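Good morning C.,

I know you're traveling, so I'll keep this short. The sequence:
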Amino acid sequence: MRSNDYEAGLDELAEVSFDGLTSPALVVDLDRVERNLGSMTAAVTSRGAVLRPHAKTHKSVNLGRMQLEYGATGLTVATLSEAAMFAAAGFDDLFVAYPVWPAGDRLRMLTTLAATTRRLRLGVDSSEGAARVGAAVRSAGRPVEVLIEADCGGERSGVRSVEAALAVARSATEAGLDVVGVFTHGGHSYRTRDGVRAAADDEVLTLHRYGEALRNHGYDVRELSAGSTPTSHEDERTGVTEERPGTYVFNDRLQVRLGACGWSAVALTVQATVVSVGRDHVIIDAGAKVLSSDLPAGLEGYGVLPRYPAAVISRLYDHHGVVLPGDGPRPRLGETVVVVPNHVCPVVNLADQVQIVSGGKPADPWPVDGRGLVT
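The C-alpha cells, ready to paste straight into the viewer:
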C-alpha cells in the first residue's frame, strides 16, 4: 500500500530516544521491523511471487534470519564478501545480484561459495564475465545458476539489447553455467515520486522482453527477478517471479518522500546530541560518518529531525552536523534529538551495531555483521 500523506506520523518518531544511550547511535524499533517484514511478504506472495530481500540494507545475520522466518525464500547480497559472511552463518540460498567479476580475493571467495553453498546464484552481464565465472566454479562439482542482468532504465549495469543478452547466455552455457533467468533493478524509481509507477512498468516489460527472447532460443527461464523497494509496492507485477527489495526492512526519509511508506513504517532512526550552539545554527554529533553524505534529488538537507521538522541539516563534516533551525524552535545545547536519515543503507554500513528497541524498551544491541564487506 503506497502512502499519500507525507506528514502523518512524523511527530511519533520524535519520541524514539532513550536516556543513557551514548550518541550518535542507530536505534532500530523491532516492532516496526516486524510489521514491515510481514506486510512486504504478504504483498509479494499475494501476487504469486517469492521474496528474496536484499541484505545490503541491514547487513545483519539476526535480521536476515527474521526475514526467512517471515517467508523469504533466501537472501540477495551485493558482494561476494557479504555472501561469504551469510554463508558462514548458515544461510544456504544466496543470490549475488551484481555482475560478478572473479579476481583476487573475489576469485577465492567464489570458488569456496560454489563448493559449499546449497544454492548459489550469480549475476552476469557480459560474455567475458560469464566465462570467468564459469572457470572459477568449474571445480565445485555442483550446479551454479546465473541470471543475466538487464538494464531497465537506470543506466547502470546490465545488458541493453536482446542480442547482447543472448550472447551472454551462450557464453554462460559454454562455461558450464545454468542460465535460469533475468534480473533487473528499477533504480530510476528513486528519482521522483511520479516516476515510480513508470519505473515499475519498465521492470516488468524488460523482464518479459528478455525472458521471452531467451525462451525462444531454448533456455529454461525459471526466474524473472525485480528489485526495488518503491516498485515492489506496486500492484501490477504480472509475470515477475521474484522481488528483491532491501530498504523496506527499515525504510527512510526517501522512501516516505517517494510514497513507498509512511513515517509509521520508519524503523531506524539516529539518536544524536546537540553539542554546540552557534549564532544561527546548532551542531549535532552525527556527521558524515554517521548520516553519510547521500543527498538524493528532491530532498533538502541530510535528514529530518521529527521534533523540529522546519530545521535543515544543511552541512555535514566528519563528526559535525550543521542544523539550521528555520522558522521553528531551536534545539537546545545538550538536547537529545532524533534524525531520520535520507538513505538508510549507507548509514547502516557506517555503524558497528544497532541499538534494538522492542516493546518500547531498549534491548541488547545487534552487530552489523557485514559492515565494510564491499569486495
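Safe travels,
E.
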